[in-house]
Amino acid sequence: MTTTAPSAHAVVPASPTDRLLTASLLAGPLLSLAADATYAVRGWSDPAGGVLHVLGAIAYGWVALRVAGWLPARSRLAAALVLTGLVGMAGNVAYGFEAIHGSLGDTPLVDQPGAAGLIKPLGLVFPLCLALVAAALLRLDRRWQGGLVLLAAVAWPVAHIADLAVPAVAINVVLVVAVGSLVWTPPVRG
């Protein structure tokens, strides 16, 4: 009787978690693009834009987890990605709800004193997460994607703090191309 060992190059089917995290590479950037395009047309306090913003922010949390999973298990960068990915997701989600809240005619949290100001530092963690995603992609030899994500990370707070619709949409187009392309050309897992 002859037995054969599994091939070292055998294809391992993706787990449901892998499929979810990989799908987020398209979902996060596309939902964020749709949110900013909606804001560009209807204003920064549009409820539909806010809903898309919240959903895109959640998906971007999964993007951070996907990229962290490609790094070696003992990587400090992976740990930093998990931290900033989840905190940045919370801040980004908060700004989506801020748009929904504003659409109801309520005073924006960013204009309130005290505890409401927590939205600001949490929101700034999202572009920091993008910068760490860029660093991870560069480390994983995905240079052009890493470069584009780094550019987006720097431009993101400028466009979004100043409510500049055209640059915000352009940044999201860059992220759709850079992050979305990883669905078809993922790095080798660390």
From TrEMBL:
Source organism: freshwater metagenome
Keyword terms, alphabetized: Membrane, Transmembrane, Transmembrane helix
Name of the protein described by the UniProt record: Unannotated protein
Transmembrane intervals: 20-41, 47-65, 77-97, 117-137, 144-162, 168-185
